[in-house]
Each structure stands twice: as C-alpha cells, then as structure tokens.
Specification:
With 698 residues, the chain is of the alpha/beta class. It is 32% helix and 19% strand. This is Protein kinase domain-containing protein.
C-alpha cells in the first residue's frame, strides 16, 4: 500500500513505477509540486548502495542544466531511499510518438540539439545517464527535459543479470552496456542516436520483441534506419557505431545539431497536448493528512472507503504515466474459536480450457492447495476456488477474465491456459488491478510483465533451455557444440541462440550456429557432423515435427553425441524419433521428483491417479497467492502483486524470486527448470536444474 507521506512530502498519487522504484506526485511542506521517487527497499541491502546513492544524488543536485530536471532533496538513509525533483508537467516522448508518429527532420534536429546539450551538462557533472530513452525525455512547453539521470549508476547493477535480462532499456542501451561492460559518455551517445532515429522514423532502430531478441540485434546486427532523412542519416549512423571510440563526442554532436529552436520545435498537434497536460495539475487540491474512517464492524466485508484518487496524465521523474489509488478497509479477520465471527473468504479463480486434461490437472492441484490452507488452524482467512472456461481462445479468455474480475470477491486469477488464450486476459486483469498468475504459457506476448498486473510463475524460453545448458556445462562438457537454428519458426529458436552466443551461457568448448532454411531438411546438418560424430547438438526451434526430422537425419548420419532442446518440441512426432534427447522444461514430474512426492501422494489418494504435469505448479500458484494475501497490506487485491514481489518464497516446485527490473522469475537458484530424457516414446524426469551434475544425472 502506498504511504501518505515521505520525508515531510504529502503524496497525491502515482506518476509511474519502474524496476528501481515508484514515482509520486507530491507537495513539499511549502506547497510546491515535486516528483518524488522512492527507491525499492531491496536495493538498500546492496553493500555500498547508500554511499553510491548519496554520491550520485549530490552530483545530480549540482546539475543546473536548462534541459534537465533538478534534484531538490534526497534521503539516502531512509529505509527506502528517496529523492525529489522539480515537477515539470509535460508529455513523455514515448507517448508523443505513439500518438503522432515520426517527427519532421527540423524538429528532430532541434530535439537533438537540446538533448545533446543536456548530456554535455550531465557528463561535465561526472554522471553517465545510462538510460536515455523516449520515456525519459519529457516534452514541456518550453522545450524537452532529460529526466531520471544518475540513479541507474547509483544502484550499481551490472548491465546484464544472470538470466540475460538488463538494467536499462533494451533497444536504447549500447552494445557495451548490453554485454555488462563499463560504460561512459559514448554509451549515452549511442542511446541518444537510438532515441533520435526512433523519433525520425517512428520505430526503434533495433526493432521490437523480447528483451533478449532486441539485445542480440543491438550487439550483433546493424540498425534499421530505413526512411531516415538524408541530412540526419550520417550523424545518427555514427552515433550507432558498435565501438564506443567510433562514435562522435557530445560536443561534436552539439556542433552538428546546432542551436535549439524555440519556435515550432514540436510537430503540429503536439503543443496542444503538452499544454493540456500542463493544465491538469493546476486544479489539484493541496492534500490533507490521511485519516482512517472508523466504520462499524460487521461480519460482511464493507465496501471500500476511498482514501484518495488521482488520475494524473503528466509525467516527471519517470516516463511511465498512470493514476494512483489506495484503499483503507476496516479489519475484519477472525479466527476459529476467537469469538470474532467467521473468517473472511478470499476467492482465487483459475482460468483455462476446462475441456483439456492439462487444465483439469491444474484445477485438481489448486483444489488440494485450497483445502490444505483451509485446514490450517493458524489461518486468518479462508480460500475458495472458482474456475472459468476460456475455451482455448483469446476471445474466450478475455470474456471469462472480465466476468471474474468484475467480482470483488476474486483476489487473484491463475492463468492455466495456453499461449493463444492467456495474453488476452492480461489487459483485462491489469485494468481491474487483479494479479494474474501465469502458470504455463510461454510466449513473447507476455514479455513486458512490469507494465501489467501479471506475474509469470515459470522459467521461460527467453532464458533458453536452462537445464540442458547446465547439463552441457556440468556433465557432458563437449569440445564442440552446434546450435541448429530452425528458421521455419525462427522466433521460437532465437532465445536459445542468444543464450549461448550473446550471453555466453554455454561455458565449455566451442560454439557454432548452423541455420536451416525454412522448410528445408536437416541432411546438410547431419553431413556436416559426419566427420565429428561426438559433437553436441542443441536444437533451437519449437515445432515437434521439425525436431523429429532433425533427430532422424542425425541418426541416419551416424551422429552419436549429445542432443538437446526444450519442452516446446515435445510432441508425438518427436517423442517417436527423439530417443536419447535431453529436454529442459518448466514443469516437474511430481511422482519422480523427491521434493514433490508428498504432494504426489496426496494427489493420488484424492483423485486415484498419478499427478500429471502442471498439477504441482498450480498447487504452488494457490499457495503463493495465499502467501501474498497473508502479508501486511496484501489483503487488498490491487496490492497483491506488489506483496508477492516484495520477498522470495519457496514452493514445492521452485523458489519464487523476481528480478527487480524485468520482474521475471530468477532462474539461477531453484528457478523451476527441470531436466528430462526421451525414452520409450515418453519424456522421463531426470533431475531439477540445481541437482544437475550430481550422481543422478551423471
């Protein structure tokens, strides 16, 4: 739940949130409007963080550039460190581009002049911005402002985390930042080039999609500058050079762009939008201290009493734009035998195609978790499970989700469905503020989790076939590995390629990538391996029939080395042809995994059948939601996701801990990868990711 004040500043509402913290619109004790950024508490536990934060904010406070937003005050010693900047009402460049499209060359040049001047001042102050992107460029009536500078470096995070995610914004950060190397002013030049190219063409120069895909193109491929005006192309192309030394300096850019032109610096239509945003804040009241309303206690939960509501369309301090709501509800929990009445009920819904066996398995696993929770004597609320049929379609998913979130009784939704259906439920749940816990879907359509109310409870293909890669590193240790990238579904295979090339997760031997054209056979791959039959093969693709064709070609060609892939190739054609292949999955086998055997026994006792794939994961989803609901502040459905992100939790299938920037599941420590081997036409469970290399898998 949001606080009502921070450091003597009265908070009015949220302006946005990101990986590092939350930004509020606030009033100082003297009545001035500020943008107040509260850094996430977990950063305070990083050794040296407070010293870095203090140093960076002190440097930023001395920055007096016309084109930046000044830091007014900060507190590095607070439990959750914070800083306040002047509030400049305006429109983020990212939103302006989405509304009006690309800018004419003259306006791009004027924008470049102001931003180059801003970076010059930032660098002279001893800072490197590290996150120049359209969302951090604020369009005010008198010119642009570069915001959110200095803090990324204070946090002290490396550019790449262990699972290949980034601190910074893929598509705008430099190749050296993507690779985790030391960055300096040339990195900001690269990012500025990306911003201006996007502004001139209407699209990011390294495309869109998953973070890993964009990073791979940034590091390995040339930018797409199609449509860039001829007079801007040489300068921006130079800014986007892969090597820092090949880029122009910021002073050189200032001379190339010339002076900022105050008149007509915004394209037609945008001045009115900027003025409208600036006007909205003027009518906001000075906030009064928050008070709790002492409503009479009843056994029936009362309706929510509104504390405050602000829908602010201006942005400052971050590029995200949004509104903020917070609710106080009178305590109503009782306990058995306490004399305080019945316990409140929190309903968790499960959404999926109820005609399928895999969703029915999840329903059964979820029911076990609900019943076990309700049998606990120390519980403070009861759980109820509601199911909804999405019929396996996007339209069915959206409609069913809308019916679920319309009920205030539903505190969370478990997305048990497929890649086709689940993404359609995301915007519905996000608009309602209901946390959507995604169990098995794995698609690029779910990449931007930190802008939604959903959490993905599984390791995804974005991080590659983690268990297979670990087996190669710890057990097989091949001298040479060939990654077979099947271009029939190139997007499905790209994550595996990036993980072992850009991110270097395959730590042993040499790595080569062989591309197989769309629809082509694999005899060429097999022929190329004939002289080296012990070479390891990692299949990067997701069509079972194509993986089966690869397996058949390798067998016919005499290949006898390691062969591996991920769960997406499991299917009837492949299971028949893929004997001996190693497979990385996001689901366990409850009966074979020692850590889930208690669950497996309970499942068999109740349902008289073995627990199938995904049943234990749904069990964990219910327990995880209950864990969040039991936390202080977690009993409001709008705040459940924040409580779940606040601290790690250990389930029976994996440890739930999320990377702060991307809010993806951290996979290095029991993150939910499992290793299987194909035998006798089925995938047989071998080990958990963190057990690979032990006797069971050698």
């Amino acid at each position: 739940m949001d606080p009502s004040s921070v450091g003597g500043h009265r908070l009015v509402g949220r302006l946005g949130a990101g990986g590092m913290g939350v930004v509020y619109l606030a009033r100082t004790p003297h009545g001035a409007w500020v943008a107040l950024k509260v850094i996430r508490e977990e950063y305070a536990g990083d050794p040296g963080f407070r010293a870095r934060f203090r140093r960076e904010t002190e440097l930023a406070a001395r920055l007096t550039s016309r084109w930046t937003v000044p830091v007014l005050t900060a507190d590095a010693d607070a439990r959750a460190p914070w800083l306040a900047t002047a509030y400049v009402p305006g429109l983020p460049l990212s939103e302006a581009l989405a509304l009006s499209g690309p800018w004419p060359p003259a306006q791009v040049r004027s924008l470049g002049a102001a931003l180059a001047a801003a970076l010059d001042d930032v660098h002279r102050a001893g800072l490197v911005h590290r996150d120049v992107k359209p969302a951090n460029v604020l369009l005010a009536a008198d010119g642009p402002r570069l915001i959110d500078f200095g803090i990324a470096r204070a946090v002290g995070a490396t550019a790449l985390t262990t699972d290949g995610s980034v601190i910074g914004s893929p598509g705008y950060l430099s190749p050296e930042q993507a690779r985790g190397r030391t960055v300096g002013p040339p990195s900001d030049v690269f990012s500025l080039g990306c911003v201006l190219a996007h502004t001139a063409t209407g699209r990011p120069p390294f495309g869109t999609g998953g973070a890993a895909a964009v990073l791979y193109r940034t590091v390995r491929e040339e930018p797409d500058l199609t449509g860039l005006p001829a007079d801007l192309a040489p300068t921006l192309r130079a800014c986007l050079a892969k090597e820092p030394a090949d880029r122009p300096t910021v002073p050189r850019l200032r001379s190339l762009f010339g002076e900022f032109t105050a008149e007509s610096w915004l394209p037609a239509g945008l001045p009115a939008l900027v003025a409208d945003r600036a006007a909205r804040v003027l009518d906001l009241p000075v906030p009064e201290p928050t008070a709790l309303s002492a409503e009479p206690f009843t056994d029936t939960p009362p309706g929510p009493s509104r504390r405050w509501l602000l829908t602010a369309s201006a942005a400052a301090g971050v590029g995200a734009v949004g509104g903020g709501t917070a609710w106080w509800r009178w305590a109503r929990s009782g306990t058995p035998g306490s004399g305080k009445g019945p316990l409140p009920t929190r309903t968790i819904a499960l959404l999926g195609d109820l005609s399928t066996a895999v969703v029915q398995a999840q329903v059964r696993g979820a029911r076990l978790a609900v019943d076990e929770h309700n049998a606990r004597s120390d519980r403070t609320f009861d759980l109820a499970l509601r199911t909804a049929d999405d019929r396996g379609t996007a339209a069915g998913s959206a409609a069913a989700a809308a019916r679920l979130v319309a009920s205030r009784e539903v505190y969370a939704v478990i997305g048990a469905g497929t890649n086709t259906a689940v993404p359609a439920a995301v915007p519905v749940c996000t608009e309602a503020g209901v946390c959507l816990l995604i169990v098995r879907a794995d698609t690029d359509a779910l990449d931007v989790t930190n802008a939604t109310s959903c959490l993905i409870l599984r390791s995804t293909r974005t991080a590659g076939p983690g268990s297979v890669v670990k087996y190669l590193n710890r057990v097989a240790r091949p001298a040479r590995t060939v990654v077979v990238h099947d271009l029939t579904d190139a997007d499905e295979g790209e994550p595996a390629v990036r993980i072992v090339t850009v991110y270097g997760k395959l730590e042993v031997g040499t790595v080569e990538v062989t591309e197989v054209a769309e629809g082509a056979g694999f005899s060429g791959v097999a022929h190329g391996l004939a002289a080296h039959p012990d070479t390891a093969v990692l299949f990067a693709g997701g069509i079972p029939a194509r993986a089966a064709a690869c397996a058949e070609a390798l067998t016919a060609g005499g290949h006898r080395g390691f062969r591996g892939g991920d769960e997406h190739i499991l299917g009837t054609p492949f299971l028949t042809a893929g004997a001996g292949w190693w497979i990385s999955t996001g689901y366990c086998d409850p009966a074979a995994d020692p850590r889930t055997r208690t669950f497996a026994a309970a499942y068999r006792t109740r349902y008289r059948t073995a627990a199938p794939a995904w049943a234990a994961e749904a069990y964990d989803a219910v327990d995880y939601a209950a864990h969040g609901l039991a936390a202080p502040g977690g009993d409001e459905r709008e705040s459940l996701r924040a409580e779940l992100l606040r601290r790690p939790w250990q389930g029976i299938t994996r440890r739930f801990s999320y990377e702060s920037q991307t809010q993806y599941l951290e996979t290095d420590q029991d993150g939910g990868w499992f290793l299987y081997r194909v035998e006798d036409g089925r995938a047989r469970f071998v080990a958990r990711h963190d057990d690979i290399g032990k006797k069971t898998t050698s």
